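Changelog note: in this version the structure field was regenerated for every chain. One regenerated record is shown below for reference.
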Amino acid sequence: MHATIKDMDVLDTLRAAFVPVPGYLDAATCGLPTRATVTAMHDALDSWQAGRADLAAYDEAVSASRQAYARLVGVAPSWVAVGSHLSVLVGMVAASVPDGTEVLTVDRDFASVVFPFLTHADRGVTVRTVALEALADEVRPSTHTVAFSLVQSIDGRVADVDAIRAAAAAAGALTLCDITQAAGWLPVDAALFDITVCASYKWLSAPRGTAFLTVGPDLLDRLRPTSAGWYAGEEIWSSVYGPTMQLARDARRLDVSPAWLCWVGAVPALELFADAPHEAVHRYTVGLADAFRAGLGLPPGGSAIVRLPDDAAGSRRARLAAQGTRAAGRGGGLRLAFHVWNDAADVAQAVAALSNS
């Protein structure tokens, strides 16, 4: 899978939105901010310091972020709820599953996809964990929810969406898909799943503290708005005092009150990726990852994330760092993530650092 000349023309514009950071192969941990994000947050801080904080402008930033994210994942803005962190949104889903039901998850999936369900053991919620490759086969008639990451954080494996959806539909189970490690490099259609969640500070380059949940109107009533506050009201600025509660009629009823400055910075990043040529980004990022794998004599992996074994001391990661490449140590291995700001020079540098290891 290789980027075409046409891809490179449009990707050059996308890449220009970032300040170059040679050797940064760690999007799966934390994305780099766009130039516009940094400017927007500096301006917002200056206004705050000068006593000119504009709540209406903050609200506009949340709305613009919601709309951009909706475009990115292919759903209507009315399907999108905003939140702060993945565990908060998954926790809302976990609080909504009935007593005594089974939740099927993936072995070694990201903790924020699994832990919120485990905390409901006292009311009989059972969490069963299986290998990613066996997930579809392990869906039972007793399974209430299948909760999984589209792309595994630990090693970049991509779930078999068609098989999982078919198995869940046959069993009448809900699908909860975490798209955090996918959205931004892998084209995503959130409408394929009953519920999706996404932390946007990784591949989408938004500030940490911005996250999203999508749910269609036919399933909205099955989710309890556990973080309901004034921002979840039908009329936000008329909902700041109780006791009368009128929540929004769409997915906004699930909104978590936003950390304003984070959303000011999120708008430019989310709009950038929403408007980006998704297939071209996919070809480019996977092409870089596969070029790196080829440089080490490994077969193509089909993912923008590459996992390599490492020793307990993290020797391979240290070797990369000594040569100016930043990667992550995760789950006892080395994780490299190739994004739009990376290029062939980053690949060559990482290959050279590891070739003799």
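Spot check on this record: The radius of gyration is 21 Å. DSSP finds ten helices and ten strands in the chain.
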